[in-house]
Amino acid sequence: MSNQITRRQAIALTTVAAGAVLAAPRLASARSRAIGLWREAGLDLQQAGEFTLPPLPYANNALEPHIDAETMEIHHDRHHKAYIDNANKALAGTQYADMTSDRILGLLDETPDDKKTAIRNNVGGHVNHSMFWLLMAPTGKGGGGEPTGALADAIKQAFGSYGDKGGFKDQFAEVATKRFGSGWAWLIAGDGGKLKIVSTANQDSPLMAEKFAGPGAAGTPILGLDVWEHAYYLKYRNKRADYITAFWNVVNWTRAAQLHTGTMGAHEIGK
Ligand code: MN
Prior knowledge:
Layout: H1 2-22, H2 29-40, H3 69-91, H4 101-106, H5 113-134, H6 149-159, H7 168-178, E1 183-189, E2 195-201, H8 210-213, E3 220-226, H9 233-236, H10 240-247, H11 253-269
Antiparallel strand pairs: 1-2, 1-3
The protein binds manganese (II) ion.
The site of manganese (II) ion has 7 residues, from helix 3.
């Protein structure tokens, strides 16, 4: 009897918590659905409070020869960790300290000026890198190959082809190559679920409002590539194009397809 009451209370509490998440402002359902998929994949973008460094889902050397172990180690253990430490520092004692990372990014426009840049750069950096690790996998063990199913069809429809000259791979590589300085190249689902290739500067994220992500660059990330020099310089030196070519060997298309399916489902249901 008392067990049953406890269970009922627990269910009631769970319902309240779920309602609170759904009521979060500026969280469109497509984005919310994608964040749920990220969570299932082991990336807790809903995490509130102090952010912690998520472990790499593979060994430092697992992406060799395409991305070398030393680059992975420095990139994850030092660069990503620094974004997290600086994000926690910027958030401490503010009203944002207990918010989830996606909500913090959604509220940037209202963030006080003395915190805005630090939060934009470092919460952005944390979220972007958390996604990046999960969107790669060792070649032949979840990494490489080509997209399949509905994502392959959508890529063909949006970009003409996946790998033919002038198709998706070429268009993505061009955007990634042309990003001046530091930033990211993304495949996103934009308005109505339409696939687009976009680039963001520095640690800006498609999860931010367009004002911050850049014109046309807000949406739900499906694939992302870090083109900061720290992501490739040890092995590829100044040859960013070679790093971009190598990236295709480690893309986790299964995960990208899951994100695409989730996003499309949300758009079919309606916003
Ligand atoms: Mn990076």
